What we know:
Distance between the termini of chain A: 30 Å
Radius of gyration of chain B: 18 Å
Strand content of chain B: 15-25%
Helix content of chain A: 40-55%
Largest sheet of chain A: 6 strands, parallel
CATH topology of the largest domain in chain A: Rossmann fold
Number of strands of chain A: 14
CATH architecture of the largest domain in chain A: 3-Layer(aba) Sandwich
Distance between the termini of chain B: 45 Å
Number of domains of chain B: 1
Strand order of the largest sheet of chain A: 1-12-11-10-13-14
CATH superfamily of the largest domain in chain A: Nitrogenase molybdenum iron protein domain
Shape of chain B: globular
CATH architecture of chain B: 3-Layer(aba) Sandwich
Shape of chain A: globular
Strand order of the largest sheet of chain B: 3-4-2-5-1-6-7-8
Structural class of chain A: alpha/beta
CATH class of chain B: Alpha Beta
Order of helices and strands of chain B: EHEHHEEHHEHEHEHEHHHH
CATH topology of chain B: Rossmann fold
Oligomer: heterodimer
Strand content of chain A: 15-25%
Number of helices of chain A: 18
Helix content of chain B: 40-55%
Largest sheet of chain B: 8 strands, mixed
Amino acid sequence: MRTMPTDACLDPYVRCALSGAAQTALGVSDSAVLAHAPQGCNYLVDGAFSWQDCDYAQTTTLCTKLCEDEIVHGGEELLARTILEAKELDISALFVLSACGPEIVGDDIVAVCEDMQPKVDFKIIPIECAGFRGSQYDGIDLALDAMLRTLAETRPTIPNSVCLVAPHANANPTWMADLAWVKDVLSRLGVQVVATLTHATPLSDLADVAAAEGVLQLSHDAGYRAVAYLADTFGVEPLCAELPLPIGMTNARRWLTSLGERFDAEPIAENMIADGERMVTETCRRRWPMARFFYRTPAAIVADATIGIPLVRFATEEMELTPALVALRSANLDAERLLERELNELGLAPQVVCGTDVYTTRRSLEAVRPRVVFGSTIERHASEGLDVPYIFEVVRPVRQFRLLNREYFGYRGILNLLECIQNEWSDRWRSTQRRYAARW
Amino acid sequence: MKQIAIYGKGGIGKSTIASNISAALNEQGVNVMQVGCDPKRDSTRILAGGHLIPAVLEIYRDKLRHGQDAHAISLEDIVFKTPSGIYCVEAGGPEPGIGCAGRGVLTALQILKDLKAFETYAIDVAIYDVLGDVVCGGFAMPIREGFASEIYLVCSGGFMSIYAANNIARAVQRLARRGDTGLSGIICNSNGDDALERAVVPVFAQRLGTSFVEFVPRSSVIQACELEGRAVVEHAPQSDEAAIFRDLARKVMENDVKVIPTPVEELPELEELYRKNLVKVEAV
């Protein structure tokens, strides 16, 4: 049964559109981000800075720090002055992001950017992304939209090439590892990556993005609009569009097979699959993870769609759990259709919540009473008093400090997930209090 | 101190009514301050001899640009006393099409409050002349922040004018629950259709649960005074119109009734109320 939160969003998981737009803009190298916002909103840009692993020596963020005067009289003048001040920076592009305040009082950042463009050497790209426009995933879409419409140009198609969309719209706290795995796979298949939208992406790549033969969307939460725009405007072919992302054995196999077939590299793809599956089984045989007594245990998956949808098959096939609740942090019709197909194929009928918030998750957990939850630190707290023995913290925010990037995609990704599961299982086992609470 | 707010549809004559009430009260020995809450800052024009006085937000902005803040503003900068002794303030605000005028009004009123303007000048009556319509939360600030407690609606006999007044009454109904604020009456500023207006406006007032305070006729005397930048009681003191404004000022001073209005919720009901009176007048 599919449900949506009916009340106002009480405690959203995801941040606002400004945050998502900043995450996207900060993925472009040799550029700066100017938040036309009060200083509090600028903290979201700081958060986005970390999410994109930006380098303080290379990436600059600016803020107009709007005060009462700019709210009363409008802040266009201040924005124009600040853009001029950015002339001192050695950048190729300036992304101008608007927060709620200036959009409510009618600041026209697009007009200001157009007026200022002749006065500066760098490209100015306005992104109207006030927080009230939606979630951070909507912000990612708004930013990708602005970038593509402003920067993408018609180019001759490069054979065997792809562009990657929205790798950062992924709640794996170290999502760069997923992107690295995808790039490695493509390289081994002999496929050139023309542009990544976005992570450390040169501005020139954005201009060349339409030269790609295909587009690979690396998120089920954002990027659908960008993929549609590239397909409709430049004829770039969407790839693996009907498949869940490659998390878990079956998903990875299907995804690699599809790419191998598309780029006439089936033998390479088959080898990668065979090697990967062998590596996983041999590692598990050698290390012998103990957390394997989950047969038909009811599970809840509370995650973004990017991880949550593929986890359904992973939990069902690899872990032999029975998903009883799937709660996705975003509500996207394409993602929902994909989830529905997966559930039908697997013969599952869990409770499905799209666009969940923390309150709705708690209510759903109360209703379903799972024994296992795939989620985050938030679900650990949301499950308090519900007698849930195991909370596998695999999505942001996690408690663990991660120094190294760890992918969820591909075969090492399976081991990374199993490692999280094993550690939680051991932690429960070793704690006397938790051991008895666990009942197993 | 009485604190009065004048609301109504844009262009209905709120500033004319407010200024003439101020002048009439002043003539009666009442110490009055009129506060224009409109970015156009033309509320006090006819009190100030046809001139536009500097606005609070304009001065505030000037101070900010010179590295100062609201504390650098003094009452002498923002309060202007007319030769006849009326204190005038204009909130001011952004250019058309940008910024938030509502927020501006609140900022200006807060500055006025912080500087203890009413206490300093021992004001008996403060009249807030509020921009056009309750177009956003900001314009309700004089009510919401407790600056104004008695609200008068200005309307004519035009249907859309009554419709706008009804909308404002809805805002007053919402805001009146929060504090010591209420609707004190309706003033009709005639558009020339006297018979219809004298029939429909009192009925509308009754429907809102408030009183019909005064009928101000459409008059060339009032127009001439406005053109000269003078209040009617000053420029044409012997006229019938001056007598009407004196009477209106007296009623405003004497009135201490304020109600939570009961606005018409559905448009058809308002149409029916209007149609009935229109038919009655046509029959006569």
